[in-house]
Amino acid sequence: MAAFIPTMAITYIFLALFLSSDIGIIPHVESLGINYGQVANNLPQPDKVLELLSTLRLTKTRIYDTNPQILSSFANSNIEIIVTVENEVLSQLDDPQQALQWVSSHIIPYLPETKITGIQVGNEVFTDDDDTLLQHLVPAVVNIHNALSRLGYSNIQVSTPSSLAVLQNSYPPSAGSFKSEINGIMYQFLSFLSTTKTPFWINAYPYFAYEDDPSAIPLDYVLGNNPNAGIVDPYTKLHYDNMLYAMVDAVYFAIAKMGFRNIEVRVSETGWPSKGDPNEVGASPQNAATYNRNLIRRQMANEGTPLTPRLRLEVYLFALFNEDMKPGPTSERNYGLFQPNESMTYNVGLFSVSTTPKSTSTPTSSSTPTSTSTSTSTSSASFFVTSSSTKTKVKP
């Protein structure tokens, strides 16, 4: 056992060097994105949403379908948009001709006026309750990419977002590894990403970890407050002062252990609910504002993770609006920065000084307790990313 530990440490250090040595070839990220969900019956029209995004000076958004009204409304704007192939369509796209037809009818009519920069094939397919979906993922991704190339749009990136539940291990970050049962298809998928120089997208929610065990995980670490003791990876000696970065680096290590080092990891979803059920500890407007403010502050400072410090982490916040028709616990309907009437749920500072928002009030009530205790006295080895941090959000 004594001999095994140094060998293990050397392996992790090698992986860290293996990853960081090639980071310079990954393009520099320019802006923050936001998820524009539509599982609601009271949202503003897309043209109003475009005005809101312009006011916020956000130039990247992601939707969960190929809504024609949105794609048409966003034409001739400066908004880059990532669209999604719904999970139920994947089985049809095994056929290259069907994929070509899908691209021709859902994407091509809006180009180039609408800046469609990416297509997400499915959502959290690797961990979907329907196991049969996974066998269609890589063929669908490849067929859509080939269809785009055939039609002259090979610059549109094709990928899929995954839940953190794809990881078997996530703590410490250097121990990150994919679940063995998905390794075969994951290797095929990573091979595609490596060949096409396309990012790996992850949905990462530190909130889930805190909600599951608030007594063991310091709130400051999960929210990204500074200063806090954070954690130190015992093998790489890298220090983490927020859980999101630890989650992302765990994914980098998992990818490296599959033999790939030129794949960038991006965050397709992260956020914090402003309201929850009584058992959803930490869901409050104060904590939601703090988490998102800290994240935006780090983005504006061009921060990268400890493993990839020279690469600013690209992040898409979840979400633009509260969505009243989402199933599940109360938190699911309360991730939005804005209410459907475009008033702010809380202020994260996205408005410029010359802008007068419709509402600047911050709710003070919450259905769940909040905590303001610091974590500076917590041992760096006394808490970790629990299994609950890999929970997936409830799907519409």
UniProtKB/TrEMBL annotation:
Q: Name one Pfam family in it.
A: Glyco_hydro_17
Reaction(s) the record says it catalyses: Hydrolysis of (1->3)-beta-D-glucosidic linkages in (1->3)-beta-D-glucans
Stated EC number for the protein is 3.2.1.39
Its Gene Ontology biological processes?
Answer: carbohydrate metabolic process
Provide the coiled-coil residue spans.
Answer: none
The keyword Hydrolase is annotated on this UniProt entry: yes
Keywords from the named record: Glycosidase, Hydrolase, Signal
Enumerate the GO terms in the molecular function aspect. Answer: glucan endo-1,3-beta-D-glucosidase activity
InterPro entries, per this entry?
A: GH, Glyco_hydro_17, Glyco_hydro_17_plant
PANTHER family for this protein: GLUCAN ENDO-1,3-BETA-GLUCOSIDASE BG1-RELATED-RELATED
**What is the similarity comment for this entry?**
Belongs to the glycosyl hydrolase 17 family.
Q: What is this protein called?
A: glucan endo-1,3-beta-D-glucosidase
